[in-house]
Amino acid sequence: MENSCLKRRGRIKTGAAFGMEKLGANTDSAVYVANVTDYTKANYTFNVLRDATPNHEFGGNWTVFQRRFYGSVDFNRSWAQHRDGFGNVRGEHWLGLEKLKFLLNSGRHELLVVLEDFDGVIAYAKYDDFVVGSEAENYTLKSLGNDGLLDP
């Protein structure tokens, strides 16, 4: 299984520049509607998966922007598909570079990468300042901050 998650430092409040509204059952990990209003569009909404599990003692409340576990979704896609996203947020998916950029523009964010092989061996890395450029900059990685690869 492979997950890439981001976490905003501090609490995310509904109704602020970046808000979340829960969809579905009353569980900790669920699909939420992200409402981003602080970038180039006045009101941009999309679904995101929020992971509330402890994530190797890094805590919950992570937004999952890439999720793969069985290879049921082909990630060999066009530029436009990587920009816009594909798959289903309840399963394997890539949220999309533009949506990721919208989320990151709402404030400082952490990045947690969790990799698990088919034998259950887990590796992870955590960074404290995840920033990517705009589409005009090809969503270039601008910063990861500190921390990095951690022992499993």
Automatic annotation (TrEMBL):
SMART domains listed in its UniProt record = FBG
One Pfam family of this chain: Fibrinogen_C
Regions crossing the membrane:
none
Q: Which InterPro entries match?
A: Fibrinogen-like_C (IPR036056), Fibrinogen_a/b/g_C_1 (IPR014716), Fibrinogen_a/b/g_C_dom (IPR002181), Fibrinogen_C-term_domain (IPR050373)
**Residues annotated as domain Fibrinogen C-terminal:** 1-152
Offer a single GO CC term for the protein.
extracellular space
Matching entries from SUPFAM superfamilies are given as:
Fibrinogen C-terminal domain-like (SSF56496)
Q: Which Gene3D superfamilies match?
A: Gamma Fibrinogen, chain A, domain 1
Instruction: List, alphabetically, the PANTHER family matched.
Output: FI21813P1-RELATED, FIBRINOGEN/TENASCIN/ANGIOPOEITIN
Annotated protein name in UniProt: Fibrinogen C-terminal domain-containing protein
